[in-house]
Amino acid sequence: RQIKVALKKLKDLRKQGRKEFSIDKSIEKTCENGGDIELVFSPTRKNQLKLMLLMDVGGSMTPHAERVSKLFSAAHQMNHFKEFHYYYFHNIVYDHVYEDALFRKKIRLERLIKKIAKDTKVIFVGDAAMNPYELFGAVGRYHYFRDENEPTPRSGMESLKFLLDFYEKSIWMNPDDRRYWGATTCDAIWDEVPMYFLSVDGLSQGIKYLLTN
Q1: Residue 176 phi/psi, 5° resolution?
Q2: What DSSP assignment string belongs to 186-206?
Q3: Order of strands, edge to edge, in the sheet holding 83-89?
Q4: Co-location of 63 and 146 in the same domain
Q5: How far is residue 174's CA from residue 182's CA, in Å, rounded to a whole number?
Q6: How far apart are the first and last CA of the chain?
Q7: For each of the chain's 213 residues, which pLDDT tens digit applies?
Q8: How many domains does the chain have?
Q9: 98, 35: one domain
Q10: Nearest-angstrom CA–CA distance, 14 and 46
Q11: What sections of the chain are H helices per DSSP?
Q12: Same domain, 129 and 34
C-alpha cells in the first residue's frame, strides 16, 4: 500500500477533455448572482503522466524478486497513469529489452523509442552488479543473448546512454544496500542516472526527481 501511495505522487494533471458539472463552482456563481442559478461546467483534470518500468531479472536479482514484484504489481494495478509500460533485461539493457521475464520476445531499442513517447518517465530497477565487460564491452550481451545476424552491437553502457538521451527523465532503483554501490559497474551507472535505494523512502525521493522540470 505504501508503494501505491508513493506512486500516486507521479502525476501531471492537466485540464482537458469534455467538461463536467462543478457543484462547488455552480454554488459560488449562484451566490454571486444573488440567487440566480448558474450552472458551471469545468474541464476535467486527468493524469497525463506516462511511466515505463525496466526491470533486471535473474542472477543476482533473484533474492530481490519479491521487492521488485511488489513495485511492479503496485504500478500495474493502479489505474493512475495515462500510459504504463514494462519490459525486462538482464544486468543491463543491450540492443533489446524483453516483453517477458523469460526473454522470449524482444524489442529493439530503436523500435522501443518509436513506440514509447519521449516524455515518458523511466524507472530502471536493478542492482547494477555485473562483470565490467558486460557493461563496457560490446560483446557483453553475447554472453547471454548471442545473435550473430544483427547489426554491430552497442555495449550495455552505450545502450543505457541511448535511452537516457532519448527519454527526458529517468531514475534507477537499486535493491542492494548502499554499501555496495561503490562497485565499478554500479558506480559507472550511478554517474549516468540518479540512483535511489529500492524502498518506499527511496522511491519517494526518486519520484520527486522525476517531477522536477
Answers
A1: -75, 150
A2: HHHHHHHS-EEESSHHHHHHH
A3: 106-108, 96-98, 83-89, 50-56, 121-125, 169-174, 195-197
A4: yes
A5: 12
A6: 28
A7: 667 667 677 665 455 556 665 666 667 766 777 766 766 666 666 768 899 999 999 999 999 999 888 888 888 776 778 888 999 999 999 999 999 999 999 999 999 999 999 999 999 999 999 999 999 987 655 445 555 566 667 899 999 999 999 999 999 999 999 988 989 999 999 999 999 999 989 999 998 999 887
A8: 2
A9: no
A10: 6
A11: 2-7, 23-32, 65-77, 109-115, 132-136, 142-145, 156-166, 184-192, 200-210
A12: no
Give the torsion sign (CA, 53, 58, 61, 66).
positive
Dist CA 109 CA 98 (whole Å): 10
Burial class (CB in 10 A: 0-12, 13-18, 19+), 161: middle
Indicate whether this model's pTM tops 0.90: no
User: Which has the closest alpha carbon to 123: 14, 1, 213, 6?
Assistant: 6
SS3 at position 86:
strand
CA 57, distance to chain mean position in Å, is: 15
- One domain for residues 35 and 135: no
